[in-house]
Every structure is written in C-alpha cells, then in structure tokens.
Amino acid sequence: MIDRTARTKLGELMRHWASGRITNWQFDKHGETATNGVEDNALREVFVPFAYQNEYNQYRFVGKHRLAKTERRLFARCILFLQNDADYYDPFRMGCREMLFMLLTLGVWKDRNYWARRQHELLCGRSC
User: Fold this and answer.
1) How wide is the angle at C-alpha 5 spanned by C-alphas 2 and 7, nearest 5°?
2) CA atoms within 13 A on the CB side of 113
3) Which residues contact 109 (CB under 8 A, 6 or more apart)?
4) How far is it, in rounded angstroms, from Cα 110 to Cα 85?
C-alpha cells in the first residue's frame, strides 16, 4: 500500500538533509515520525539505511561533510522513487512458490524478474 503523504514528507526531508538545510539529528527525528506506523514498505527501506548515521555528532552536509557525487546521485534516486507511485519490490524476499522453484531447480531459477532485467541489460548495453 502506497502512502503518498508520507512519501512526499520523507522525500522533502531527504532533499533538505542532502542540501544541508537540516542536520542529521533533525532528519532522524522528523523521518521517524513520518514513517512511524505506515504500512508502505518503501518508506522503511529508504529511511532505515540513511537513519542514525552518526548518533554522537550533529552535522549538516556542508563544508567537509559535503556529499560526494555518488552519494548525491543515491539521494536523487531515492527522492525520485519517493515521488512516484511505484510499489516497492524487494528482490531478496521470496515467497513459498519462489523458494520451492529455487529448491527444485537447485538454484538455477533465479527470481521472477531475472529475465526482464537481463533483457533490459542487453538493450542498454550495461547494467542499468
């Protein structure tokens, strides 16, 4: 289930944190209230890796703490995902059917999106 208001709030918080407008402690506090009690799995999967990066020091992403180019791209991808209404698909979570196929084929059968990703990689010429 997608929670549009919570996704928008978390996207704004991430944008403010990445630009240095708020501190890491403010992001943790407001992000926790925005994602608390929400059934949207995407919020939890996006918020948790960023939350509580440094509980002892308070900082902003400015000066020596400025984000590197790869980190800014990661923030941008997460914010872009939070702005759309796509469901979150966890590629590592397997149901009973997927687990059964994995056991019966001795691991040859990857997951239900393996061939779609492989076709996309062949069309792009690289891993996208």
Assistant:
1) 60
2) 9
3) 101, 102
4) 26
pLDDT along the chain (128 residues), means of 10: 89 93 91 86 83 81 89 89 81 62 62 55 54
Could you tell me the residue ranges of all domains in the chain?
A: 4-83, 92-128
pTM for this prediction = 0.67
Annotate the chain with three-state secondary structure.
Answer: CCCHHHHHHHHHHHHHHHHCCCCHHHHHHHHHHHHCCCCCHHHHHHHHHHCCCCCCCCCCCCHHHCCCHHHHHHHHHHHHHHHCCCCCCCCCCCCHHHHHHHHHCCCCCCCCCHHHHHHHHHHHCCCC
Tell me the two tokens of residue 68. Answer: 């590197």
